[in-house]
Amino acid sequence: MASEDVKRSESAVSTIVNLAEEAKLAREGVKAPSYAMLSIFKSLVAGGVAGGVSRTAVAPLERLKILLQVQNPHSIKYNGTIQGLKYIWRTEGFRGLFKGNGTNCARIVPNSAVKFFSYEQASRGILYAYREQTGNQDAQLTPLLRLGAGACAGIIAMSATYPMDMVRGRLTVQTDKSPYQYRGIFHALSTVLREEGPRALYKGWLPSVIGVIPYVGLNFAVYESLKDWLIKKRPFGLVEDSELSVTTRLACGAAAGTVGQTIAYPLDVIRRRMQMVGWNNAASVVTGDGRSKAALEYTGMIDAFRKTVRYEGFRALYKGLVPNSVKVVPSIAIAFVSYEMVKDVLGVEIRISD
Question: Spans of the Solcar repeats (predicted)?
Fold first, then answer.
């Protein structure tokens, strides 16, 4: 009898445990998908907000950079950061400083959202593969692996939003002498499609793909590696616990932006010039003679590099670097910190470095 009672008790306990597990799985089966979707949505929102805030903060410098990149070397209007900003203010007013920013934000918000989200997913996938390969389940991402994850994120985000970047560039340099007068983003997209074909929306895509690997890859790799090093080593008394201050995180973002943009900048110049092909009558790219006109007609990325260096010298590949440096340093820093702060506000536990 005692043996049968024990068996009955064990059976009852087993049944209760199984029912509890089934109930738990049922609850998770209902909640997990919705929770996952909510987490993804919050992550995308955080990335979008970070991109919009960071780009609006430096919009005047962004426009000046593009104007410096594509201006005709025989008709110089913009001679540097301060002079260029003053010239825009004097000739176009306050609104001129933010021309093209609406289009820029319309592009950068989804771009930033996709970029940060893609980086998190790529990081998880790469880390899982790395742990499986090494057999060390406690292994962490190395700077090189972070560079790879950042490169993947950059390529995905840039490819998804490239047409917006193309028309944003044209809207930014548009004047009353431009060959087309675009009324806005969608009008620009439809006009380019109608007049130049769908391939025109991806002019300069190849140098962008090549440039985004060191640029975005280094941004993420340097930012995370610096944070990781500061938390582990705690130099100069900057870190008292596992959390970095906003100022320290901004400094990490600034360093990341400086390294990434300096290495990738020549490709950004070439991309922008390829996007402006066909805009020889725009005020900022007016050609003074046949030679300068030929320099603006590129058959591809290599040809664009060759003609730029031949007609304007190697320094032309770094036109606009100073205002771009002034822009990128706070922009990248603000983007990283804004992203993490918005995720904190939205209650998303996992952040970049996690």
Answer: 38-125, 141-229, 244-345
* pLDDT above 70: residue 247: yes
Q: Phi-psi category of 165—alpha, beta or left, where left has phi over 0 and alpha has psi -120 to 50?
A: alpha
At residue 159, what is the residue type? S
User: How far is the CA of 258 from the CAs of 38, 265, 321, 344, 354, in angstroms?
Assistant: 34, 10, 11, 26, 23
Token pair, residue 284, equals: 């900022």
* Calpha distance 317→306 (Å, rounded): 11
pLDDT in tens, 224-240: 999 888 888 777 665 55
Looking up tokens 């990434």, which residue turns up? Answer: 260
Q: Give residues with Cβ within 8 angstroms of 119, minimum separation 6.
A: 149, 150, 152, 153, 220, 352
User: What stretches of the chain show up as alpha helix (H) in DSSP?
Assistant: 2-57, 59-70, 81-97, 101-134, 143-173, 185-196, 205-233, 246-275, 290-295, 301-312, 321-346
Report the largest interatomic distance among the alpha carbons of the chain, rounded to a whole angstrom: 108
User: Which CATH number is 2-346's, of 1.10.10.10, 1.50.40.10, 3.40.640.10, 1.10.1240.10?
Assistant: 1.50.40.10
HSE at residue 27, side-chain half, CA atoms within 13 A, is 5
Geometric angle at alpha carbon 250, from 246 and 254, rounded to 5°: 175
